[in-house]
UniProtKB/TrEMBL annotation:
Gene3D superfamilies (alphabetical): 1.20.120.1770
Gene: LOC101378074
Catalytic activity reported: monodehydro-L-ascorbate radical(out) + L-ascorbate(in) = monodehydro-L-ascorbate radical(in) + L-ascorbate(out)
Organism (species): Odobenus rosmarus divergens (Pacific walrus)
Membrane-related topology note: Multi-pass membrane protein
One cellular component (GO) term of this entry: chromaffin granule membrane
Presence of the UniProt keyword Lyase in the record: no
UniProt main location, coarse: membrane
MF (Gene Ontology): metal ion binding; oxidoreductase activity
Needed cofactors: heme b
Function summary: Transmembrane reductase that uses ascorbate as an electron donor in the cytoplasm and transfers electrons across membranes to reduce monodehydro-L-ascorbate radical in the lumen of secretory vesicles. It is therefore involved the regeneration and homeostasis within secretory vesicles of ascorbate which in turn provides reducing equivalents needed to support the activity of intravesicular enzymes.
Cross-referenced PANTHER family: CYTOCHROME B561-RELATED, TRANSMEMBRANE ASCORBATE-DEPENDENT REDUCTASE CYB561
Protein name: Transmembrane ascorbate-dependent reductase CYB561
């Protein structure tokens, strides 16, 4: 009974927003697959269809899985912090690997077709986001999962880690929108303005991307939905304060 009473109850609206975000995220992935299957010929690792692995992998990796990784600390509110950190890191690893496949696919396709690389705003934002994502994971692993990191360094870096996580996620969504518009203009050209079926479906996909990104960011920015500190975290914080400021817990 004591352990059950010590668990912090989730805010009433939070589960509904999380469920809505997952519905949007899965719909984004399904709509991306439908767009590629219906209007782009499907996916293959050779020939012209290799390019189609790029948008699907980037949507699954740097948008859906990255968004879910950011929500881990809102969903798992009462689990051990170490377990939650490992899950957070693993989701980012899976997202990075899938996104890496997408990056290899587009560069291979460009090389095979003789197309130029890295000339568009979409490609510049994409490479920037991918590099920042990798650096963010490395630094986060060093500070929060590597056992040798000092508690003081973790505390000082945590606000930057949270900010850059949200910023990279937002950059990923924006880059996906740029790539979607670029792909439509390359294929449809002037016909895009005539409400071609592919253009309408892609516009719906764009709205779904915005909806998923906005829902995730809303959940992250609600201060009352943050994960409550666990007993061991409060003890560590008190120990650190005692060591750095000379305060004694008994004097509080």
């Amino acid at each position: 009974m004591e352990s059950r009473a010590g668990l912090a109850a989730a805010p009433r609206a939070l589960p509904y927003y999380v469920a809505f975000s997952q519905l949007l995220g899965l719909t984004v992935v399904a709509t991306t697959g439908a767009w590629l299957g219906l209007y782009r010929g499907g996916i293959a690792w050779e020939g012209a269809l290799q390019f189609n692995a790029h948008p699907l992998c980037m949507v699954i990796g740097l948008i859906f899985l990255q968004g879910d990784a950011l929500l881990v600390y809102r969903v798992f509110r009462n689990e051990a912090r170490r377990t939650t950190k490992v899950l957070h890191g693993l989701l980012h690893v899976f997202a990075f690997i899938i996104a890496l496949v997408g990056m290899v696919a587009v560069f291979d396709y460009h090389r095979e077709q003789g197309y130029a690389d890295l000339y568009s705003l979409h490609s510049w934002c994409g490479v920037l986001g991918f590099v920042l994502y990798f650096v963010q994971w490395l630094v986060g692993f060093s500070f929060f999962l590597f056992p040798g990191a000092a508690f003081s360094l973790r505390s000082r870096y945590r606000p930057q880690h949270i900010f850059f996580g949200a910023a990279i996620f937002l950059l990923s969504v924006g880059t996906a929108l740029l790539g979607l518009k670029e792909a439509l203009l390359f294929k449809l050209g002037a016909k895009y303005s005539t409400f071609e079926a592919e253009g309408v479906l892609a516009n719906v996909l764009g709205l779904l991307l915005v909806g998923f990104g906005g829902t995730v960011l809303y959940i992250l920015t609600r201060p009352d939905w943050k994960r409550p500190p666990q007993a061991e975290e409060q003890a560590l914080s008190m120990d650190f304060k005692t060591l750095t400021e000379g305060d004694s817990p008994s004097s509080q």
